[in-house]
Design brief:
By secondary structure, this protein is mainly beta. It has four helices and 22 strands. A hairpin with a 2-residue loop joins strand 12 and strand 13.
Length: 460
């Protein structure tokens, strides 16, 4: 087999591997996922826009590709286990017709797998590099017990993305590189919550309508008929990213990178389970739509060699979460269906890390970071019970040949206790929306997150 044929075959295999891996939802600060490789987890992803150790720099800073010689393949898998728990301290029923207040909801998290894959190629030696990344930049999954106290606010919330990122980098000078890429991103979402059909029937037709619902076998004349509303949809959209890297004679690298906003026009369907026939006209199944604008990010990072075997990393990353103010869902006709206020703030993240080359084959990684949540206390929803968090991380790299290396890492996230004080009815609904009672959700969330990762790298 010729060298050119080998490269082409390897490229096809890498792309196929990356595309095969299914996207999975998980929750980081907001619902953005920084877990885009395995080599960075041991540093708590500190300084990734300047680290540029392997082809995964396509995601963090495309300019870093100029530090990756020849042809390289990277495949990684992150295992993320969030564990949010709710404690009630004064919640109320949505209406007197609600049959019971409910419990605390159990463990709202689950184990999620976040895959990523990258391939890079030094197309014009010493001058131009090209590459392709496949990643999962956003993800969310919470799943509360069916009869819990906050069921009219949320049951299941799932957001999954997959991002295709073709990239090119140019080494302008020995000390300056730039890079840019296009992003084609798919989003899949599924949201469910309980619906109090007895209350809806009473609001529509009074006691006679409530009695008719009870006569149909759903609930009783005193109320108690519930079901589940499910909204699901998907979409594709475009965005871009760019970066630059300075390599100074002081063994210092400075990286700056930017990822654009991406506006998703989601189209899907709504369905109502256990719905009484009386409400089929007022609450029909059918097509729905919504729009969500994923935030842009800016990262500034530094990598500094302080000893022959020791490198320090640092970064500051800003995320424009204020692009998301609410989650408003409309019928295909444009008629409003439901709205949840979010009012996200812009957020930031700062990280510090260190790499120590213990032997020629073994590298030890340490790191810590602080993530500022975009969620305001007043608008914290069980769909995203997010709060500020600290990272503690460590990892190892085993380079068992000049071409191949394996990275493993682990991290624990200490998350601040999060308050909940959602009102029974949204006091400021968007124009055209009629707010429905959901029950005041008063209490607190206690959460933590475990993360483990594994990555394989091979260079030709």
């Amino acid at each position: 087999m010729t060298k050119t044929h080998l490269r082409r075959t390897s490229l096809i295999a890498a792309v196929a591997l990356a595309l095969w891996a299914p996207p999975s939802g998980a929750r980081a600060s907001g619902f953005q996922l920084v877990e885009q490789n395995g080599s960075g987890l041991g540093n708590a992803y500190a300084g990734q826009a300047a680290a540029a150790e392997d082809a995964s720099t396509i995601f963090f800073n495309p300019a870093g590709l100029t530090r990756v010689p020849g042809l390289q393949l990277v495949a990684a898998l992150d295992f993320i286990r969030p564990s949010p728990d709710f404690t009630d301290s004064g919640s109320t029923r949505a209406t007197p017709l609600q049959p019971s207040l409910g419990g605390n909801g159990g463990d709202g998290g689950s184990l999620s797998l976040v895959p990523s894959g990258y391939v890079s190629f030094e197309t014009v030696p010493g001058l131009i590099w090209t590459g392709l990344g496949v990643s999962v930049p956003f993800g969310l999954e919470t799943n509360w017990d069916s009869g819990w106290v906050g069921r009219f606010h949320a049951l299941k919330s799932s957001v999954e993305t997959i991002n295709l990122n073709p990239t090119v980098a140019w080494k302008i000078a020995p000390w300056l590189s730039v890079g840019a890429g296009a992003n084609y991103q798919r989003l899949d979402a599924e949201l469910t919550n309980a619906v109090n059909y007895s209350a809806a029937a009473f609001a529509a037709g009074g006691a006679a309508a409530l009695a008719a619902v009870a006569a149909s076998g759903c609930g009783t004349a005193a109320g108690g008929c519930e079901g589940v509303a499910k909204v699901s949809g998907d979409t594709w959209t475009w965005g871009w990213n760019a970066g630059a890297m300075l390599e100074l004679p002081t063994q210092t690298r400075v990286g700056v990178s930017y990822r654009s906003t991406m506006k998703h026009h989601v189209k899907g369907d709504v369905s109502f389970s256990n719905r009484p026939a009386l409400l089929a006209t007022g609450l029909p199944n059918g097509p729905v739509k919504t729009t969500i604008e994923m935030p842009d990010t800016v990262s500034v990072a530094v990598a500094q060699k302080v000893l022959p075997a020791l490198e320090l990393l640092a970064d500051f990353t800003w995320t424009g979460w204020s692009s998301i103010t609410d989650l408003s869902i409309y019928r295909k006709s444009g008629a409003p269906l439901s709205s949840t206020p979010l009012e996200f703030d812009d957020s930031w993240r700062v990280g510090l890390g260190a790499n120590y080359q213990a032997t020629q084959m073994l590298k030890v990684r340490l790191g810590t970071a602080f993530d500022k949540t975009p969620v305001q206390d007043e608008f914290r929803t069980p769909r995203l019970p997010d709060e500020d968090r600290w990272w503690a991380a460590a990892g190892l790299q085993w380079a068992f040949s000049r071409q191949a290396a394996i990275d493993v890492g682990g991290a624990y996230l200490f998350i601040k206790e999060a308050s909940s004080n959602l009102p029974n009815v949204d006091p400021r609904p968007p124009t055209g929306f009629q707010p429905s009672p959901r029950g005041a959700l008063v209490g607190s969330y206690d959460a933590s997150v475990w993360i483990a990762s594994a990555q394989a790298r091979y260079s030709f």
